[in-house]
Amino acid sequence: MKMKKLLLSAFIFITIMNVACNNKKGHNALLQPSQLPYQAVPFDQIAASDMEEAVMEGIKIQNEEINVITDNPEPPTFQNTIAALDRSGEVLNLAVLTLSNLESALGDTILMNTLAKVTPELSHHSTDIMLNEKLWQRVKTVYEDTGARANLNPEQIRLLDETYRNFAENGANLEGEAREKYRALNSKLSDLSVKFSQNVTNDMSNPKRRLWLKEDDLSGVPQSIRDAARSEAKATLEAEGKEDDETLFLFTVFAPSYTPFMKYADNRELRKQLYELYNSRNNGEEYDNTKILKDIANTRLELAKVMGKNNFAEYQLQGTMAGTPEHVMNLLEQLRINYSEPVKKELKEIEDYANSSQGNDFKLMPWDYSYWADKLKNDKYAFNDEDMKPYFELNNTIEGVLGLATRLYGYTFKENKELPVYHPDVKVFEVYDNDGEILGILYADFYYRPGKSPGAWMTEFRGETKDDEGNRKLPLISIVTNFSKPVGDDPVLLTPYEVETFLHEFGHALHGLSSQATYASLSGTNVYHDFVELFSQFNENFLTEKEYLDGFAKHYSTGEKMPEELIDRFISSNQFGAAYACMRQLGFGYLDMAYHTINEPISKETSVDDFEENAQNPVRVFDVVENCVTSPSFGHIFSGGYAAGYYGYKWAEVLDADAFAAFKEEGIFNPEPAKRFKKMLQSGGTVDPTELYREFRGKDASVEALLHRDGIK
Questions:
Q1: Catalytic residue at 505?
Q2: Which of 186, 295, 495, 549 has its CA 20 to 30 A from that of 686?
Q3: 406-438 residue pLDDT tens
Q4: Which segments of 322-384 does DSSP mark as H helices, in order?
């Protein structure tokens, strides 16, 4: 999700327009108005080699648009300054989002190198806009004109206030040496973040991060996972020009491979090996990030001090629901206090269970947790993730996840097989509202492939906006996951976790698709970062609701609906692990805040391992494992825009539990709460999120609903 002070300012993340260019650049499709329906991206006409040219030309075009604003002889007004600024950069936006999205989804070397090359230019460009003195003075004049403000509508006032704040927080008020220092620090951070990110990506695909196994090593591993590992081995050997060996199975540190192996493999030593391969990433050797992450943390501290703040978190948390580091730590501490005892009970129960078969000297280690927790769940609740997989066949699940928006908001989805895509795996859907009007286009890229970034995400190729006549430009939204590809004629069956991930990213997609904002800076997911996860995490709640599951969760071979007792066992087993899951997230949150509340630079001699150990001690549940650390591969906070913001997941979890409690009180498919929730989806950043949530719920959120959902209370 996007956050303020990213690679580009919020003003650059907006939509394509026909004023783009005069076809000066030949056949570069990114520099010409799309002739496709809905002005969709012409992926079939775009080559990786087009990207650099499109970005650089986009920068040039936006500079010309900015010059038109600053050279305007007329007095500054909302329309000729604030709105004009918001609508600038549309060509650049298309180029940048296409490049960054495809680089993540395809892992193409040309795209990776191009992104690394243009990133400094984009950083300079963004900083130049924020530090453009003539532009700043016009923004400031409009902001301070109280008479003109009285004639603006609420959305325009919101855009004006957010524009002024964005400039002020990005150095516009600085002068002389401080201004140039701010510029240099931003440029340095941009370079460091790209290097960090690319090291993470490269080390994920590092041959050293592989575990080549034989059939005898796979005791406990389900057949579907074995088949995927055999397929991975074959594809890897072929890619490396080697002859296939049918006796080999390949497991890697990518989620579809790593996660099930850690859960099901009986061989403890192999689990330990894979755990160490995963958790030692970027900690030394070729793709080392330990020096880079300290440079990033120290540079952010220096930037914060230039801006008059004590630390980076204090600077970064402006314009969030939390507001201050103290409020963040208050939430984290509140959760730590409530979950500390339950997690001790969970771990003791698991260790006692393991001791019953392994001997009394068995000590639970981090590579044991998933395995023994799953075994205990299976015994205690007669539940195993594999029990639910037959009911989550991918095609049925796609219908079910999309169908959630149909039942809640009346949206419908029609697959479009004519629009071009960037990879054959990608599906395209036209999305319509309850009145039959088209809302936008949804691209869905489900399958894992070599080079594709790990995890799952939602992004956009174009956000929603309206022109001065109220004509809506459709959003082009994308969701990407890493589900295992079909093997032969076997159906793709998803784990409950994968369905939860799908629901999560679809919630983000609905946020972008539902937007009814006029201005790009306030459209869709352009909201405070600790509010944005509400809409994704809210969707996850439906995974335990039989009324919802009955619509699609049917056994792939028998057609039977998922039994209620299986759902009940799933809920109970989820509550069993809730305390551990919370403490794990708190560990990330504490680590994030530790790096971004430093008041003095981290010294070169400081060990990243020691820093991390000290930061996470309050919420640590396992002994430290040598050379296994999170920080060097923690892309969320060092290259992904969540610096001093990882707490947002828990902040939003409090919101989503509280919001879903309203649906439980009134009926999960009751149109009244759905109507109120839909308004939040449509509002984007046009309303302060605290006010928006209070209007929906009638009160502020509290942790009580989360504690009840997790079985803590």
A1: yes
A2: 186
A3: 999 999 999 999 999 999 999 999 999 999 999
A4: 325-358, 366-380
